[in-house]
């Protein structure tokens, strides 16, 4: 029993109920106080990093106060809580975002000037929190922002990886990975919560024990203590603050004193190391299942601590179990947290003495599942023997869930064995595998895709059998969205000023459909000029960034054509670079005068490849080899530049996204579940060149089909084209053949090295239909050039597109989840 201070102490209560001062002088004093007493700094040795820390800690004070108030508010009204479970949160930087959310950016700018620093420079001192791979992790970060801004009682739950997404260096054109040691500096945004910790067990065996209600106990397991770290999520326009609770293993208790005393020093720390390793590293795979034992342990550790925490908080309400689902919603961000379903069922039947059916009713009413991919290699499966070794009790529970499920199917739709084996949670392969998506569907009351086309596809393909069993209503769509706080207001101050002026105030920042008012100014000459100037200024900022990071000089008057995202065959960066070679060939054939007449382009790539993904890494090398030749060709000069920006991350995206004239979202139709950068680019006044895939489809619906450059085969045609490529290939497109000839001539380096890329972009190896879409891709690119020459039409399109993106704010996505899946109402702290 720990001794507690008298919390009813009135002086203490008075102190915490005070508003934290917001005036410049008080802020400055608290910065001084942190510098002197938190960081042991004085005016003569305060450097930029110290100033950043000192200031950040005063912001932290203000956030913490709001976090406390938010928590007390929701507890006092017994509000239902959303628990957004995600193995990834790609947060990026917090400093600028928090100042804007608190409405104190001007004050902090003045304070940093007083300290002798420019606020912009201090912003660059912060390292990204990169606890995610790409779209899925960034979506989770946008969603916690929106839950907080929209006054929902929502928390994110995840893992506190010691090393986040690796840092990408480009050496001789090749990707080289370096560890992301983001914890080397003090992190002002997290609060260790040693008092919030849970035991998580692995291994052991199951014993039959008639004395327990379920008849089973889990014995001889290895136990770890898992501890919470809280990261408050600043929210704009409200006093509510969100929270991301990340778990990490406690290692201190695992020191082996006996071994230490026996002189076995390394042995004494063996268990500590084993525990620490659990959250050492984020698996750097995007749309690929790692299938490693350590990954399974990470998933379970995350899930177990989270479910225990949810139960702990539920019990504090004093409500009966039958009301659990009225107070708790659990959203699974893809299948990685799906073990949560088995974990809640286990706790209820083994530890809370509940009947199987009563427990299952609670589980299925609480969980909901979001699918983000149909790529077969990304669908998670775990070998039964591996799961049985690490989580013996959960495996037993999963087999029981499956048994009851198949019995239900047999009863409700008389079915053949074939059907049952197709729909079974256990795949009858050798070894058997647990199909995690199936477990997630069976254990959830709603399943959603992330864009309309994707939601339709999953119902018609990978989950079609489940639609037969559960009916269509269980499967819904929630189109993704992005937070306008970060992706417009923070990253594009020039554009934000124009929107604020048009709307009349800043209310658009958390009510983005208001940006439609921009449309009323589309014919206003002065406005059009300023719109164009904002884009040019953002391009200049990016040109400077490119100079700093790549050493390449680009002209910001050129058309900026951007493709930034994870490198993956289905995203077809390869088609883009083959198109660049075609452009280069075409330019080379022209006279210098003709060349100068062409639209000047800077083609910008960025993105990481999974470290073990050979073809993706080769694509990076290939882009850099082509860039080397093109950029150093005197004939070409400024007419064409190709840039690969290293180490794409959230903070780089904040510089890149506002600077596009055109961005490319050119996945093979049906493969990109949604995409979210497409939304960010258009909100920032960029046009898009895309396939009929993911959220491109809905963007086109909103902004108008004729505003967006679309090309390529349709999703339902893909299988037939694949089949034809394999068995009845058409002759190769002449332009593509010419591109291959250029590669084979050796101008870009050893053609043998790049031959695998030739092989996987035509004929039977062309799984992603590069050769099929190439001609229509080039035509779409020609249309882009033609429009860019007509500047006035370009500006019109850019304004119209930018103004019609109201649907794609993550506030709308979260409201959709709240209304259609979570059944939850917002409530503001100060209401
Ligand atoms: C992405 N998935 C989708 N997965 O590819 C993208 O279309 C969508 O917009 C986005 O989710 C948000 O819905 C994605 O990023 C991963 O990175 C996983 C990480 C963990 C391992 C498996 C892939």
UniProtKB/TrEMBL annotation:
Its main location: cytoplasm. SUPFAM superfamilies: UDP-Glycosyltransferase/glycogen phosphorylase. Belongs to the glycogen phosphorylase family. GO terms for molecular function: glycogen phosphorylase activity; pyridoxal phosphate binding. Keywords: Allosteric enzyme, Carbohydrate metabolism, Cytoplasm, Glycosyltransferase, Pyridoxal phosphate, Transferase. It is found in: Cytoplasm. Allosteric enzyme that catalyzes the rate-limiting step in glycogen catabolism, the phosphorolytic cleavage of glycogen to produce glucose-1-phosphate, and plays a central role in maintaining cellular and organismal glucose homeostasis. The keyword Cell inner membrane does not apply. GO terms for biological process: glycogen catabolic process. It comes from Smittium mucronatum. Its EC number is 2.4.1.1. The lineage of its organism: Eukaryota, Fungi, Fungi incertae sedis, Zoopagomycota, Kickxellomycotina. The modification N6-(pyridoxal phosphate)lysine is found at residue 680. Its cofactor is pyridoxal 5'-phosphate. It comes from the Eukaryota. Pfam families: Phosphorylase. This is Alpha-1,4 glucan phosphorylase. It catalyses: [(1->4)-alpha-D-glucosyl](n) + phosphate = [(1->4)-alpha-D-glucosyl](n-1) + alpha-D-glucose 1-phosphate. One of its GO terms (cellular component) is cytoplasm. It is an enzyme of class 2 (transferase).
């Amino acid at each position: 029993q720990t001794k507690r201070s008298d919390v009813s102490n009135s002086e203490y209560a008075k102190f915490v109920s005070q508003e934290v001062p917001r005036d410049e002088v008080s802020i400055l004093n608290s910065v001084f106080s942190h510098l002197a007493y938190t960081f042991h700094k004085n005016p003569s040795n305060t450097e930029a990093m110290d100033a950043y820390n000192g200031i950040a800690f005063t912001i932290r004070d203000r956030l913490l106060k709001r976090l406390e108030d938010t928590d007390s508010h929701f507890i006092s009204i017994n509000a239902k809580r959303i628990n957004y479970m995600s193995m990834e949160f790609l947060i990026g930087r917090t400093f600028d975002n928090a100042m804007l959310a608190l409405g104190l950016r001007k004050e902090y700018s003045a304070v940093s000037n007083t300290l002798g620093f420019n606020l912009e420079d201090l912003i660059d001192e912060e390292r990204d929190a990169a606890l995610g791979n790409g779209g899925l992790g960034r979506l989770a970060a946008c969603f916690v922002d929106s839950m907080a801004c929209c006054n929902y009682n929502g928390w994110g739950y995840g893992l506190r990886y010691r090393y986040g997404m690796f840092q990408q260096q480009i050496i001789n054109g090749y990707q080289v990975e370096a560890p992301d040691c983001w914890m080397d500096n003090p992190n002002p945004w997290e609060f260790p919560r040693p008092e919030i910790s849970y035991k998580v067990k692995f291994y052991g065996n199951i014993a039959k024990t008639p004395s327990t209600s379920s008849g089973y106990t889990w014995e001889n397991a290895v136990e770890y203590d898992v501890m919470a770290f809280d990261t408050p999520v600043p929210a704009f326009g409200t006093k509510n603050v969100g929270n991301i609770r990340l778990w990490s293993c406690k290692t201190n208790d695992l020191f082996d004193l006996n071994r230490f005393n026996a002189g076995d020093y390394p042995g004494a720390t063996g268990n500590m190391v084993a525990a620490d390793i659990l959250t050492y590293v984020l698996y750097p795979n995007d749309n690929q299942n790692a299938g490693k034992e350590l990954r399974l342990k990470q998933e379970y550790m995350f899930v177990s601590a989270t479910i225990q925490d949810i139960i702990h908080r539920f019990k504090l309400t004093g409500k009966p179990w039958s009301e659990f689902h009225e107070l708790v919603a659990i959203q699974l961000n893809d299948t990685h947290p799906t073990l949560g379903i088995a974990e809640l069922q286990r706790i209820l039947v083994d530890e809370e003495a509940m009947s199987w059916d009563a427990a299952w009713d609670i589980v299925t009413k609480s969980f909901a599942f979001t699918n983000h991919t149909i790529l077969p290699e990304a669908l998670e499966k775990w070998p039964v023997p591996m799961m049985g070794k690490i989580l013996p009790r959960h495996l037993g529970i999963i087999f029981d869930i499956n048994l009851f499920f198949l019995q239900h199917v047999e009863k409700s739709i008389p079915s053949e064995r074939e059907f049952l084996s197709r729909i079974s949670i256990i795949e009858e392969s050798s070894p058997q595998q647990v199909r995690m998506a199936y477990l997630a569907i069976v254990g959830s009351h709603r399943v959603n895709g992330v864009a309309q086309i994707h939601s339709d596809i999953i119902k018609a393909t990978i989950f079609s059998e489940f639609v037969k069993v559960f009916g269509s209503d269980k499967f819904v769509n929630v189109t993704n969205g992005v937070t306008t706080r970060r992706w417009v207001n923070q990253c594009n101050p020039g554009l934000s000023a124009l929107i604020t002026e048009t709307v009349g105030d800043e209310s658009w920042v958390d009510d983005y459909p208001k940006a439609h008012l921009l449309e009323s100014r589309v014919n206003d000459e002065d406005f059009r000029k300023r719109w164009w100037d904002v884009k040019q200024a953002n391009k200049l900022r990016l040109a400077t960034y490119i100079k700093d990071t790549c050493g390449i000089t680009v002209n910001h008057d050129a058309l900026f054509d951007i493709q930034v995202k994870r490198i993956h065959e289905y995203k077809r960066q390869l088609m883009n670079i083959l198109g660049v070679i075609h452009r280069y060939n075409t330019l080379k054939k022209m006279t210098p005068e003709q060349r100068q007449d062409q639209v000047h382009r800077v083609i910008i790539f960025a993105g990481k490849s999974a470290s073990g993904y050979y073809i993706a890494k080769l694509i990076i090398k290939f882009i850099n080899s082509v860039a080397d030749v093109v950029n150093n060709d005197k004939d070409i000069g400024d007419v064409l530049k190709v840039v690969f920006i290293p180490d794409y991350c959230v903070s780089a995206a904040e510089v890149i996204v506002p600077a596009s004239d055109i961005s490319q979202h050119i996945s093979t139709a049906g493969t990109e579940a949604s995409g979210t950068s497409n939304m960010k680019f258009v909100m920032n006044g960029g046009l898009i060149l895309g396939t009929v895939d993911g959220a491109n489809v809905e963007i086109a619906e909103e902004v108008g089909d004729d505003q967006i450059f679309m090309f390529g085969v349709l999703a339902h045609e893909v299988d037939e084209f694949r089949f034809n490529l394999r068995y009845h290939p058409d002759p190769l497109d002449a332009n593509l053949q010419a591109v291959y000839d250029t590669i084979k001539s050796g101008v870009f380096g050893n053609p043998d090295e790049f031959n695998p890329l030739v092989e996987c972009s035509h004929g039977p190896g062309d799984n992603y239909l590069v050769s099929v879409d190439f001609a229509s891709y080039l035509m779409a690119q020609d249309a882009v050039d033609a429009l860019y020459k007509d500047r006035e039409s370009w500006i019109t399109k850019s304004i119209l597109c930018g103004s019609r993106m109201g649907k794609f704010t993550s506030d709308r996505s979260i409201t959709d989840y709240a209304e259609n899946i979570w059944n939850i109402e917002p409530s503001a702290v100060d209401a």
